[in-house]
């Protein structure tokens, strides 16, 4: 049976089912059911990122997932972790963070490190396999183990001569789930 009822409440907001809705200092993502805090990375892919062990570290028009540029780096020879590092940001002890980005690499691996806010180590230090020579979306969560003002995000690869492009980067604190 179908019944019709009168609705007496006002429509407060409309959220499309396939997009984010902005709110002051964060985002309610109706596609994932998450409430996220503000963006922590203030550098875009067109800004100069700090790098080590690289032969190239630049904004590039050779590949871009969206827009016209991405962050490009090419690993050099020598030991140690080679890659690019974001600006420092203040992290909250025991908070859950979401990292979301697109990567295009000639190697098939990408290393992701998040340095702890107190400078004592890493809260995330992983190497993941991705498809080579195509854009791949990577989403990772981590728990901040030592909050403070010295957190930063690093992308890299320890193999010499690997070309990597990064685009659409964000890292945000996960505030809560609001969906079922």
Structure write-up:
Helices cover 0% and strands 52% of the residues. It is an all-beta fold. The strands form two sheets. Strands 1, 2, 3, 5, 6, 9, 12 and 14 form an eight-stranded antiparallel β-sheet that branches. Strands 4, 7, 8, 10, 11 and 13 form a six-stranded antiparallel β-sheet that branches. It is globular. Mean pLDDT is 85; it is low at 7-25.
Short description:
The protein has 180 residues and is an all-beta fold. It has strands spanning 20-23, 26-29, 34-39, 50-52, 54-60, 70-75, 83-85, 89-91, 96-105, 109-115, 122-129, 136-143, 148-156, 163-177.
Radius of gyration: 19 Å
Strand content: over 45%
Uncertain runs are 7-25
What is the helix content?
Answer: under 10%
Q: What does the oligomeric state look like here?
A: single chain
Query: What's the end-to-end separation, in Å?
Result: 27 Å
Q: Which structural class matches the secondary elements?
A: mainly beta
Instruction: Outline the biggest β-sheet.
Output: 8 strands, antiparallel
Mean pLDDT: 85
Shape: globular
Strand-helix topology:
Blueprint: E1 20-23, E2 26-29, E3 34-39, E4 50-52, E5 54-60, E6 70-75, E7 83-85, E8 89-91, E9 96-105, E10 109-115, E11 122-129, E12 136-143, E13 148-156, E14 163-177
Antiparallel strand pairs: 1-2, 2-3, 3-14, 4-7, 5-6, 6-14, 7-13, 8-13, 9-12, 9-14, 10-11, 10-13
List descriptors.
single chain, 180 residues, mainly beta, 8-stranded antiparallel β-sheet, 6-stranded antiparallel β-sheet, 0% helix, 52% strand
């Amino acid at each position: 049976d179908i019944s019709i009822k009168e609705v007496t409440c006002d429509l407060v907001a409309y959220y499309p089912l396939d997009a984010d809705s902005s709110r002051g200092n964060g985002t309610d993502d109706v596609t994932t059911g998450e409430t996220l805090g503000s963006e922590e990375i203030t550098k875009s892919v067109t800004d100069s990122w700090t790098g080590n062990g690289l032969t190239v570290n630049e904004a590039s028009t050779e590949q871009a997932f969206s827009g016209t540029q991405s962050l490009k780096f090419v690993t050099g020879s020598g030991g140690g972790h080679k890659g690019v590092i974001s600006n420092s940001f203040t992290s909250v002890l025991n908070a859950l963070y979401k990292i979301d980005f697109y990567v295009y690499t000639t190697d098939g691996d990408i290393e992701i490190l998040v340095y702890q806010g107190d400078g004592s180590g890493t809260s995330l230090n992983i190497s993941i396999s991705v498809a080579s020579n195509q854009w791949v979306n990577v989403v990772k969560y981590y728990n901040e183990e030592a909050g403070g003002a010295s957190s930063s995000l690093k992308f890299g690869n320890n193999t010499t001569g690997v070309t990597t492009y990064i685009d659409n980067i964000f890292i945000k604190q996960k505030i809560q789930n609001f969906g079922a």
